[in-house]
Amino acid sequence: MARWCYRHRLVVLVLWAGALFGLGVTASSAGTNYAEVFSLPDTDSKRAYDLMRKAFPERAGDTDTVVWKTGEGTVRDAAVRSRMEDALAEIGRMEGVGAVAGPYDGRGAAQISEDERIAYAQVTFAEQADAVPKALVQDVVDTARAAAGDGLQVELGGQAIARVQEPPTGTAELVGILAAAVVLFVAFGSVFAMLLPIVVAVFGVAGGMFGTQLISHATDVPELASLLATLIGLGVGIDYALFIVTRHRRGILSGKDPEEAAVAALNTSGRAVLFAGGTVCIALAGMLVTNLRFLDGVVIGTSLTVVLSVLAAITLLPALLGVLGQRVLSRRQRRRLAAAPDAKGEPVSGLAARWSATVQRRPRAVAAVAVVLMAALAVPLLSLRLGTVDQGNDDASTTTRKAYDLLAEGFGPGFNGPLQVVVDGEAPSALIRAVEDTEGVAQVTAAPPANGVSVIQVVPTTSPQDVETDRLIDTLREDVIPAAGVDAHVGGVTAVSKDFASVTGDRLPLFVGTIIGLGFLLLLLAFRSLVVPLTAAVMNLLAAAASFGVLVMVFQWGVGLDVLGLGKEGPIASFLPIIMLSLLFGLSMDYQVFLVSRMHEEWVHTRDNARAVRVGLAETSRVINSAALIMVCVFLAFVLSGDYGAAMAGVGLAAAVALDAFVLRTALVPAVMHLLGRANWWLPAGLEKRLPHLAVEPKEEDDATPMPAPEEKAVDGAASVVHGFVRTPEGEPVRDAAVTLLTPGGRQLDRVASLADGAYVVAVPSPGTYLLAVSASPHGARAAHVTVGEGPLVHDVELTPGGVDVVN
After folding, report:
1. Is 595 left (phi over 0), alpha (psi -120 to 50) or beta?
2. Which of 65, 634, 719, 802 could form a disulfide with 176 if both were Cys (CB 3.0 to 4.6 A apart)?
3. Where are the beta strands (DSSP E) in 592-714?
C-alpha cells in the first residue's frame, strides 16, 4: 500500500483533498446539532431532572444573569433604577431574547439583597447557550455594561455570557500547531520535513471534526467531543507522522532511494502507528463500560479523529514523501549524501546513546530515582476531591467571575448553586418546614405545583464547591425527605455533579480494568511476551497516579494557577477522571509500542536482551521525547481556550505525557527491562502456539542460506571467513568482545569472543552480504554490513564508548 501511494501520489492527494472538501461543504451546509444530554441513569438527580422537564417543558432557552451593585445609596434609588430599567428594556426588545425578569416589578422583590446594594435580573434567551448567536450575546453584554458608571458596577454571568469572553475559536489549536512547528524544525532542520506532520495532522483533525459534526445529526454528540477530538487529534496526528518521517529520513541517509525508504518506513513505523492508533481507540472505547450515555458521543468523535489521523499517516504521508523526494532531508544532509552516496547512515550517538549506555550500566539507580519521583508526585492524589466546576473558578478579571462574586456577596455563597427538591405531586407543608429547619439551608422558596409537580428551591449557606453542600444533599436525601414520607428527589447542577462523582468512583475500577486488560491483550499479541504488557500496565497506573497528583496540586491546591492565569482553585471536575484516563492510557500505550517495537525488532535479530534494550532506547528516545514535547505544547495550548474544564484536561494530559515520556519510557521501562533480562520476552510454549500472530514488525524474508548447526561452525569447513581486530579509538585491543555474524534477515550464523590482542575470526558459509555486530561493555557496540567474496575478508572494528550503530 505504501508503494502504491508513493507511486500514485497525485491520485492520493486529489482523493484526500476532494474528500476533505466534500466533508467540509456538507458539514457547513448541515450545521451542528450538538446535544448536551447529561444523563445519569438510576440517580436521584436524574429522577429530579425528569420531573422538572414534566413540570416546565417550555423552558428551553438558556437563562443568564445581569447583576449590579451600587457604591452609594441603594439599587432602589431613582437614578440607578432608571438606568437599569432602560438597559433591561432594551435587552428585552432584542430579537432572540425571550424574556427579562427584573427586580423592580412586584414579583422581583427577592432579587434585591437585604442591604439593597445588589440586585439582579434574569435574561432568558430563545435558544440554549451554544445556539445563541455570539453577536446577540455581545449586544446584551454591551447594553448592560453601558449602564455602569458613577459608582454603579454591572456584571453578567451564565453559559451564554461565558462564550463571548472566550478567545476566538482556533486560538488554542493555532498556538499548539506553531509550538509543534518549532519543535519539528529543531528536530529535522528542514522546513519540508517540519510541514509533513503538521499537514497530516490537520487533514486528520479536520476530517474528524467535519465527520463528528455530521454524526451529531444522527446521534447525541456533546460539544465537548469536538474539543477533545481536536485535542487528541493534533497530538497523535503530529506524533504518528513524526515517527514515520524520522524512519524515512534514516532510510535515505543509510543509502536507500526515497521510494524504498518510504516503503521500509511504512512497513515498520507505519505498522507501529496502526498498533498505537488501535490502543488509543481501545482506551477511548473503555468509556462505554461506564454506561454514561453522554460519553458515547465523545467516544465516537475522538475515535473517528484518531482513525482518520492514522489513515492519513499511512496513505497521505507516503504520497507527500513521493512529492518531496530527498527534500525531506536538510540541505546539509543532502550535500553530505551527495558527497558520499554509499554512506550507510550515521551512528546513533550523542546524548541518546550515552543515556542508553548509562541506563544499561546503572539500571537499579535509574529505576530507584524514577520510582521515587513518580511516587512523590502521586502523593497529592490522596487528597483528590471531585466536585462542581463553575464560573467561580474563572479568572478574577472576567465579568462572569465578578457576577458570581457579587451574587455570593449579596445573596449568600449558596445562591450560585441552588438545589431543587422536586415532589411528584403537591409538596406538603411539613416537608417545606423540615427543609427550612435543616442545618446548612439559607433560604427556601416553594413554587406552586405545575403539571402535577412541585419544586422547592433551596439555597445552601455554603458555596456549590464546599464539602458542606455535599453533606446537605445527603442529609436531605437520607433524613429529611424520608422522614416527611413523600416521593421527592434532590436535583440541580450541584446535585448532578455530586451524583456524577459517585457514579464515576463506583465504575472507575471496571473502566480501568477494561482498558488495561484490552491493552494487555494487544501488546501480548504484538510482542509475544507476558512481561512487556504487564510492565506497560504498571507504568500506565504510575503515570495516571502522578499526573492526577499534579492536577490536584495545580487546580485543587492552587500551585501555579496565577502563573497560568486560570482563576481560582477548587475541586477537580467530576467528568475529568474518565475522560483523562482514557486519553492517558491510549497515549501511554503509544510510546510503549514505539519504544518496545524497536527493542523487539533488535531482539528478534540478535537474541541479546541488553543490546535490544540499549539499541531500542538509543534509537527511539530522541524521537519519543520530541513527540512528547509536541504533545505537551499542544495540550498546554488549550489553557488559552477560555474553558476551565478544557484547561484542566490540557494541564493534566500535558503532565501525564511529560512524565510518561521523559521519566517512564526513557528511564524506568528500559531500566526494568535490563534488570529482567531475557524474561522480558518469555511466553509459555502452549500460549505461543495458541495465540494468533499480530506482529508490529514485518515478517522476515526467508534466507537462502540455512543456519549452520553448532558442529558445522568450524572455520575449516566454511566457504570463507571474516577476520580482523577489535580496538578502541586509541588503538587498544578489546578482549572478549562479542562478535556475531548474522544474515540480512537477522539469523545468527556464527558468534565468537575476541582474543587478548583483539583478534577475531567468524565463519562465512557462502559469498554474500551479512551483518556483523560487535559489542563489549563498557566500550559500546557497532554493527555494519559486510560483503564477502570468494576469499577471506579483513574487517577491523573500532568501538566508541556510548556509540551504537543501528543497521536496518
Report:
1. alpha
2. 634
3. none
What span, in angstroms and rounded, lies between the C-alpha atoms of 502 and 513? 18
Question: In angstroms, rounded to a whole number, what is the distance separating the alpha carbons of residues 434 and 484?
Answer: 8
> Residue 579's closest CA among 553, 550, 544?
544
Strands 63-70 and 118-125: antiparallel
547 CB-contact burial (10 Å; exposed 0-12 / middle 13-18 / buried 19+): buried
Asked if residue 432 has pLDDT above 80, the reply is yes
Does the pTM exceed 0.70? Answer: yes
Cell of 654: 500535558
State the sign of the Cα–Cα–Cα–Cα dihedral 525, 526, 531, 537.
Answer: negative
**Where does the pLDDT of residue 311 fall: very low under 50, low under 70, confident under 90, or very high at 90 and above?**
very high
Q: Does 752 or 62 have the greater pLDDT score?
A: 752
For cell 578502541, the residue is: 728
pLDDT for the residue 57? 63
Q: Is the pLDDT of residue 490 over 80?
A: yes
- Cis peptide bond N-terminal to 41, omega within 30: no
Does residue 754 sit in helix, strand or coil?
A: coil
pLDDT at 549: 93
**Digit-coded pLDDT (tens) for 284-296:** 888 888 777 778 8
CA separation for the pair 310, 270 (Å, rounded): 9
Residue written as grid cell 455535599: 470
Q: What is the pLDDT of residues 744-760, one digit of tens each?
A: 777 788 888 888 778 88
User: For strand 793-794 and strand 720-727, is the pairing parallel, antiparallel, or unpaired?
Assistant: parallel
Q: Distance of CA 724 to CAs 607, 731, 736, Å?
A: 24, 13, 14
Given this model, what pLDDT does residue 704 score?
36
Write the CA distances from 632 to 95, 166, 576, 578, integer angstroms. Answer: 43, 22, 18, 20
- DSSP letters of 399-456? HHHHHHHHHHHHH-GGGGS-EEEEEEBPPPHHHHHHHHTSTTEEEEEEPPPBTTEEEE
Decide the pairing of beta strands 488-491 and 419-424: antiparallel
Cβ 774 vs Cβ 786: under 8 Å: no
Give the residue carrying C-alpha cell 522480558. 680
Burial class (CB within 10 angstroms; exposed 0-12, middle 13-18, buried 19+) of 517: middle
DSSP for 541-589, please give it: HHHHHHHHHHHIIIIIS-TTHHHHT-----PEETTHHHHHHHHHHHHHH
Q: Which parts of 147-257 fold into alpha helices (H)?
A: 159-164, 171-188, 191-215, 223-253
Instruction: Give the torsion sign (CA, 83, 89, 95, 100).
Output: positive
pLDDT at 140: 92
Residues whose CB falls within 8 Å of the CB of residue 116, separated by 6 or more in sequence, listed in order: 74, 75, 76
Of 60, 234, 471, 141, the residue nearest 226 (C-alpha): 234
CA pseudo-torsion sign 660, 662, 668, 674: positive
What is the phi/psi pair of residue 601, to 5°? -60, -45
The three state secondary structure string of 492-519 is CHHHHHHHHHHHHHHHHHHHHHHHHHHH
Amino acid (one-letter) located at 347:
P
DSSP state of 717: G
- The SS3 assignment for 706 reads coil
Is the pLDDT reported for residue 693 higher than 80? no
Report the C-alpha dihedral over residues 761, 763, 767, 770, rounded to 10 degrees: -80
Q: Which of 465-474, 685-694, 726-735 has the highest mean pLDDT?
A: 465-474
Q: What would you report as the CA-atom Rg of the chain, rounded to the nearest whole angstrom?
A: 32
At 713 the pLDDT is 38
pLDDT of residue 652: 87
Q: Of the candidates 504, 511, 507, 543, which has an alpha carbon nearest to the alpha carbon of residue 285?
A: 511
The C-alpha atoms of residue 610 and residue 615 are separated, in whole angstroms, by: 8
Q: What is the mean pLDDT of residues 589-614?
A: 82
**Integer angstrom CA distances of residue 239 from 20, 243, 599:** 21, 6, 19
Using alpha carbons, select from 200, 308, 178, 190 the residue that is nearest to residue 244: 200
